[in-house]
Structure formats: structure tokens, C-alpha cells
Amino acid sequence: MDRLKVAAVQMVSTTSVDGNLARAQALVAEAAATGARLVVLPEYFCLMGQRDTDKLGVAEAHGDGHLQRALAELAREHRIWLVAGTLPLLSPEPGKVYNSTLVYAPDGREACRYDKVHLFGFSGLGERYAEADTILPGDAPASFGMPGAQVALGVCYDLRFAELFRSLAPFDVLVLPAAFTAITGEAHWEVLLRARAIENQCYVVASAQGGLHENGRRTWGHSMIIDPWGRIEACLPEGEGVVVAELDPARLSSVRARLPALDHRVF
């Protein structure tokens, strides 16, 4: 891996797609101005609707649509690799969409697509979430190569399923757009992120929703960048903003050489 400056964008997305897109554009510009070459938006960056079904009304066909054109142009304008959080893409099943991460190269071309595989379900303490009601799961892991780094993709709830990322190892960077709830985030977010970094001996760039949304939902935030030893390099607890860090190939090589756990894998 080459030295690589990366940025995780944290948002508190609203019910306005255009408003969210404008905020994403401003925050990505802020990240690019720091010299970041890989920028990650959070899950649901384009919409946190009043109802789960709201995403159906803004879903786009893969390869065409207002959001996809704007994201491609954003990557091209700033000459960055853009991991565009997630956006709803049309699926073959009526009433359901894919929750998809699209990656754009510095020339604006789409470099990778990942459809979220594991769908969040939770009930308790007055909250209930059932992504499977409106989302069709993906069926395959995904990663992409950029100059100097191999990057694995996951989304939010995927974080709890270590085997997804293990199937892609070794890689240099794991990126994870997310919208963790405040309840589950407080309990599990940091420890899970650090575990994925440690066991895969990779950097982790986690970009989150972070605050109280118009629909009453509160997300945990704490967007962070973690090194292969599990050390937190940068973190933004709450609110909109950008966290930036430079990934060091010497650090990655040192961890893997001193503790060659990836070489010791049996299964």
C-alpha cells in the first residue's frame, strides 16, 4: 500500500434529497481540500425519510439517475476516489430496493458496486427496525483496487459479520458507510470496528450518520479511522463534519510482519 490520505464524512441527513446532496457536495469538497484521495460518505446520505418506504420513491435504475450523475461529477471535479455511502437502486422485487454502495474513480467512472448483504433488524427500548421490509439483500462481497491500495466494502450491519470481510482478506483498507442507531452504536460500534481492523490487519474508514434526524431517529455518529493495530487515528463523535488521516504502508507492513496472523489462517 502507498501512503494514502483518507476522509470519512459524517452527516445528519434529512428528508430532503436535494438538501442532503448539497451538504454531501460541500463536505466532500472540504475533505478533498485536505488532500484526501479516498473519501467516504455515510449510509443513507441522500435520505433519512419519515417512513421506511420513502426510499422507494427516490430509487434510481443502476447506471442512470440524478444522484448517480451528481456523484460521478463530484468524484471527477475533485479527482478523488469516492465511496458514495449508500443510495437506493431499483430491484426486481416490487416494494423493495437495493441499499447500494457505488464507488467512483477520479475520472467519474463507476469502479465498483456493493449491495448491502446483511439487513438490520432490531426491536427494543421503544425502537423497531426491519430493513428487510423494504430492502432486497445483495448476495456477494465486493472490493476494488485503487492505485496503491486494495479496498474492501461493507455497510453498517455488515460490521457484525466477520466472515464477510474474511472472505476478501487480505486487503489494505476496509470502508464502512453506516447509520448505526444510538442504542446499538453506544454499545457495539467502536469495539466491532476495532475488532475488524485487528483481525484483518487493515485500516478501517467508517463514515456514519451522527445526530438527531428530522424523523426522530438518533444515530450514533463517531465516524472514525482506525489503524491495523486497532488504534483510533481520528474520530468525530457527533454532528456534521470530516475526519481525516494518512494511512501509512510502513505501519501496515510492520503489524503484519510482527504478528503474521493472516499467514497463520487455517480456515
Describe this structure in words.
- This protein has 267 residues and is an alpha/beta fold.
- The strands form three sheets. Strands 1, 2, 3, 4, 5, 6 and 15 form a seven-stranded mixed beta sheet that branches.
- Helix content is 24%, strand content 28%.
- Strand 7 (121-124) and strand 8 (127-130) form a beta hairpin.
- The model has no long low-confidence stretch (mean pLDDT 97).
- It has a single domain (4-258), classed as 4-Layer Sandwich (Nitrilase/N-carbamoyl-D-aminoacid amidohydrolase), CATH 3.60.110.10.
- It has five helices and 15 strands.
- The radius of gyration is 17 Å and the shape is globular.
**Mind summarizing the main beta sheet?**
7 strands, mixed
Let me know the average pLDDT.
Answer: 97
Strand content: 25-35%
Please tell me how large the radius of gyration is.
Answer: 17 Å
Give the helix tally.
5
CATH 4th-level superfamily: Carbon-nitrogen hydrolase
- What is the β-strand count? 15
Number of domains: 1
By CATH, the topology is: Nitrilase/N-carbamoyl-D-aminoacid amidohydrolase
Structural class: alpha/beta
Order of helices and strands: EHEHEEEEEEEEHEHEEEEH
Helical proportion, percent range: 10-25%
The level 1 CATH classification is Alpha Beta
CATH architecture: 4-Layer Sandwich
Q: Tell me, what's the shape?
A: globular
What separation lies between the terminal Cα atoms?
A: 25 Å
Contiguous low-pLDDT stretches (5 residues minimum) are none
